[in-house]
Amino acid sequence: MTEKALRLGTRRSKLAMAQSGLVADAVSQVTGRPVELVPVITYGDISREHLAQIGGTGVFVAALREALQRGEVDFAVHSLKDLPTTQPEDLVLAAVPEREDPRDVLVARDALKFTDLPRGARIGTGSPRRMAQLNAYARAHGLDIETVPIRGNVDTRIGFVKNGELDAVVLAAAGLNRVGRSDEATDFLSVDTILPAPGQGALAVECRAGHTAQDAALAAELAELDDPHTRAAVTAERSLLAALEAGCSAPVGALADLLGDGRIVKEMRLRGVVGRTDGSALVQLSTTGPVPQTHDQAMALGRELATEMLAQGAAGLMGERAQ
């Protein structure tokens, strides 16, 4: 008799299904059980409003979490950057697998790089974070660009460039990689130019907290997919976001990376940025410390940098978007 399939809750977009498929394969290997994808429609999938208007926080997550809590699925996969920073008590983040490329990429007409775009180039993005940093970079380097708010999946966004409506769009490298379309990127934007969203490129595998023996056993099996360095990094980034009291749609970028020589990792550097969407003001700071060995140490690194950023006026740059 074959074991009952595990039910994996996922958003139904092509990207979500692709990344959930990767996790499903890994979970099958760990558990020896088949995994079936259960598509769940979230508010963020059906709303046509811009994310900054609907609050951003949790709009792609709430329906998946409710399906978990009702027992309709056994575990769920989220893009970590979509997760609110507060964790429900009855659910546990069982695994954060190794992170994909955290960078943003440009998909531009005529294979153009960001710095080669013509004067007045129209760049599409749904992210206030990207707008703030693109506009700040343009101001600092004498470029003339216009950022245009857009919504939609990867196909829709790239379509704006192909049909000539926009000169370029900015997307996450990880998403393009996971749907096998990274060759369409015309420029990989350095994290020194644009810091990604907290948790960008990482996935979150969530299940019910171990109230039953079955839940506890599944959580323990899923934990085998966890990558400790990725978890420490994204915990620090999300701690920064939480301490700034900013939601997923606020213009906040953060990236924690490991510093060392060769194979020996010595320190973790956390960088954060907050800016006005027109690029007229940015607060960008970094801090470096020992690689966090515990959840609390990673959280402390994020809070420490947030405190410094708030002292430099970060709160005033987030406008009404702070949640």
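The above is record 1. Record 2 follows with the same two-line structure.
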Amino acid sequence: MRLSTVILPIHRWSEGQKTWQRAEELGFHAAYTYDHLSWRTFRDGPWFGALPTLTAAATATERIRLGTLVTSPNFRHPVTLAKELMALDDISGGRITLGIGAGGNGFDATALGQEPWTPKERADRFAEFVPLLDRLLTEDAVTQRGTFYSADEARNIPGCVQRPRLPFAVAATGPRGLKLAARYGQAWVTTGDPKIFEDGTPEQSVAALRGQIEKLGKACADSGREVAELDKVLLTGFTPDRGRPLESVDAFVDFAGRHRELGFTEIVIHWPIPDSDFAADQQVFESIATEALAQLD
């Protein structure tokens, strides 16, 4: 199992770069950031762009993987996104993972002046977005006409450092999204079942996650692929456990062990932010980063 972190882009780079460098020092497998224009309770405070932040992080670190968790079609277009990702993969020396999902009804959904899409509309767009992005990152020139997204002789030369392209970590729980994960993903991402976040139990969460992995397995089988080929990533903080796994090293080891048994290969924890939903003791957090995985062996 691998342990990664997600660093929200809330600090000016003069301060924020220290966090990304510290994440590398602590030995995290990857450091991700959210690709939003603003987000939840942080809407009225500082919030910087994901791709420039990751570019800066790439120049400030040497080994740690970097990525979005997640990018969505809410305000992205495959043609421009592919060009930026190709450059970012080059700058990082091939250390980028693209976490990608269908998006939701948060602030990003209307920031460009559009009406929020229904779940079906988001799924329709995502089903077109991912295959086109895959082509753009693997072919020198792409022309495609779609209902929502098109490309006309779009060039992406010389392509990604990682071949055939940088990996996709597809966030999905519904049948259409899981089909995309099975077809295009090198990893699958979940935050658990949102319906039980408020009133559910950790045991119910484990059962829900087990069900999601079973559905992923069926989607892979339908695509002629082994589910074991995909990394399975759990972004924590959105299950009924909430912040309890970060209360101590022992608590995290127990949490990680239960989810490793389900088949998860990577767990992502939020870098502590005081006075927020992601508040946690920094010393305990760093002890988890350096000690917890060894206790799982």
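The mean pLDDT is 97.
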